[in-house]
Each structure stands twice: as C-alpha cells, then as structure tokens.
Amino acid sequence: MVFGPPEEGSPTPAALSAPQSSQSADPSPSGGAAGGLGLPEPRGPSGPGEARAEEPLVEGSFHMKTAALVEFLLLKYRNKQPTSKAEMLERFFTPEYQDDFPAILSQATICLRLAFGLDVIEVDPSEHSYVLNPILGLTWDGMLSGQWGLPKTGLLGLVLGLILLQDGCVSEEEVWEALGFTGVGDGQEHIVYGEPGNLLTNVWVQEGYLERRQVAGSNPARNEFLWGPRAYKETNKLQGMDFVLQVGSKNLGSSLVL
User: Fold this and answer.
1) Angle at the Cα of 232 from the Cα atoms of 231 and 233, rounded to 5 degrees
2) 222: region left, alpha or beta (phi > 0 left; psi from -120 to 50 alpha)
3) CATH 1.10.10.1210 intervals, the chain
4) Which domain of life is it from (predicted)?
5) pLDDT per residue over 41-57, tens digit each?
C-alpha cells in the first residue's frame, strides 16, 4: 500500500501499525540504547471459551483501529485542526468497543511520536480535546505547503539524540549505522522521510539544526555532525536524550507496515 492523502472521512487503516505501550496519551520515555530495537508481542485473539472482558479486541481489529486513528490524527495535524475524545469515539468506536479507546489512543500516540515526531497533547481535560505538535519544541516538520507529505520531525529528533549519545559529536558513518536499525538507509527512499541522505547532509544543515564538518586529519575525508544553533534554540539536551532512549526501547522500524 502506498501512502497518499486520505480523505477526511476515510482513513486507510492498513497502512500503519504502532509499537506497543501501556502508557496513556503522554507516554514517558523508557531506558534502552539506540539500535536496541525489539518488536513487542501484540495482543492475540481470544480463545473459544474466553470472555470478551479479558480480550476486548482481537489482534487484527486492535491494530486496524490504531492505524485508522493514526491516519486520522495526521490529517488533523496537517489541517491544523484540534480533535476530541468524543469525535474519535464517534468515528472509530462502536459502543461495545469504547472501553478500548485509552489503549488504542496510547498505541497511536507512541506511533505518532516515534515515527512522525508528533506529540498528542490534551489541551482541555474537561472536554478531552487534543492537538498535535512537533516533538521537543522543534518548529520544522518537513511538510511543504500545498503538497501531500508526512511529518519528518521524528527522524530529526533521533539524529539529535544520537549526537548526544556520542558526547555531542557523531560521525556520519555512525549515524547511518544507527539509522539502519530503524529501516532508514542512505540513498534509499523512505515511505515517511523521503531521501534521508538529503535531509541529513543538506536540509537540516541549511535549516540550522545540524552542523556538518570534516573530521580533522581524516584521509580520506570523513564528516561528523554536531547540534546546530537552531537545535540549541528550540530544544535542550535532556529532551533530546529522553527521545532517543525512548526510540531505543521501541520498534521504530516496524511502526510503519506496508
């Protein structure tokens, strides 16, 4: 399946799958090393004699609803529209499945944060209304006005975190080695990020998020990356480290399933 612009009322539920989490809409990062990525076991279907209360949704239905919710929230972000619990329940949950809303919203939130670099923020607890904002306080999402595309802030946050893991400076080879664990490769077109090499060596350098310089004394010449001035202005090292550790404890590479 190819990602394209969904219509407001008909998200494509099979395009996405979210990593598993037990947290609510604002998940806290957990420990792990970048590249130590493991796919959690999804919920399985109920056995013939099990009550529905023990297994409200079979695996396929659970992940289909999560994927549909992710695409719906991406569309809301692109259109700069808020949403609410009531709207999501009305669109995606029949009455007998409404108790599953917190778990599915949690799964969707993890996927949006790790794969797309978007945080789901509850802005009005009394109304249960939500907006989506780029992670870490970053203001770049890579989405071009008037064109269909997907937010790319998640990859930027990961690279900024990798730099921190290497004491503020990481070689280009180490970046690609780490990104390989997430299914991102130099020269390989990615369903979300497009051409990642262009982002790393061109776009983010021009935007001021990264500084790219030649390693002193290297022969043949090798390059390394540091935080750029815009990264220091918009976020901080603690947030960057928290994000990369969260990515390391989840499965970013498997959060998008064709």
Assistant:
1) 90
2) beta
3) 153-250
4) Eukaryota
5) 333 344 444 444 445 55
CATH class of 153-250: mainly alpha
Q: What is the pLDDT of residues 220-247, one digit of tens each?
A: 889 999 999 999 999 999 999 999 888 8
Q: What CATH class is the domain 13-45+54-137?
A: mainly alpha
**pTM higher than 0.70 for the full model?**
yes
**Residue-wise pLDDT tens digits, 156-200:** 999 999 999 999 999 999 999 999 888 888 888 888 888 999 999
Place of tokens 């809303």: 101
Residue-wise pLDDT for 11-29, tens only, equals 443 344 444 433 334 443 3
